[in-house]
Amino acid sequence: MDLRIQRSVVSNLRTRPQAIDTGPFVAGFDPETDSPYINYATPVPGVPITAADITALVTAFAGAGRKPRLEYVTSCSPELEGLLLGAGFTVEERNQYLICSPSTLNAPPVPTGLELVEPETDRDRAAIVSAQNEAFGEFPDDPSEAAVARMRRSQERGGVVLGARSADGVWAGGGQSSPPNDGLSEVAGIAVREQFRRRGLGGAISAGVTRRLFEGGAEFAWLEASGDDSWRVYERVGFVPSGYRLYISQG
């Protein structure tokens, strides 16, 4: 599974507006945002890596005006961390990812008074982005056009986006997935605004996105938990622990 996950990350990075191959790495850049969580690189599994390759990668980030940063499944490039640390990189996080299959998915009911909706207009996409931003503590009232466009492009390529909406039209939260690749898709951005928490909505959104992926033919969904509470939510809907991923950056 580690190898399949890493290959899918490589393939998805290559769909970024400005994707480049530099030695054993693929770097995906988006000119509309300097967020390090969107602009990053990952190694191609099975390709040898040298210190000179790290230098060339840092140069590529400098040319794009972005902070050098990588995300990858550790078992697929076990020698890479040492090379990056030697080049002045610092570990941000080391997370265990979880996977779900159709046989393990356990979809809870959507809380009363709420519905899960796939956005069809940019206005609805903007509302979902605002709800996610508020839940994550980021600029709730000003969803960027770039963020809305990224969501739209992901849907056009087969990614799933779901928003949770109350009966009176208030958007309570949302979540999404990357477009499936090699039968895999990452579930991410699961967020619930404060006043709608503790009702099981996060689990319902997670399961709803995952179920739609499986209905579209995906074999596995994967994600990472940001803390113990979200870990328990994901395990309840059928995600089980699997391999490890590293987040590491320079500067």
Automatic annotation (TrEMBL):
Does the record bear rRNA-binding in its keywords? no
- Cellular component terms per the entry's GO annotation: ribosome
Q: Where are the transmembrane segments?
A: none
Q: Which Pfam families match?
A: Acetyltransf_1
Protein's name in the database: Ribosomal protein S18 acetylase RimI
Task: Provide this UniProt record's keywords sorted from A to Z.
Answer: Ribonucleoprotein, Ribosomal protein
Question: InterPro entries this protein is in?
Answer: Acyl_CoA_acyltransferase, GNAT_dom
The record lists the lineage as: Bacteria, Bacillati, Actinomycetota, Actinomycetes, Micromonosporales
Q: Which residues form the N-acetyltransferase domain?
A: 115-251
Q: Which SUPFAM superfamilies match?
A: Acyl-CoA N-acyltransferases (Nat)
Q: Which GO terms describe its molecular function?
A: acyltransferase activity, transferring groups other than amino-acyl groups
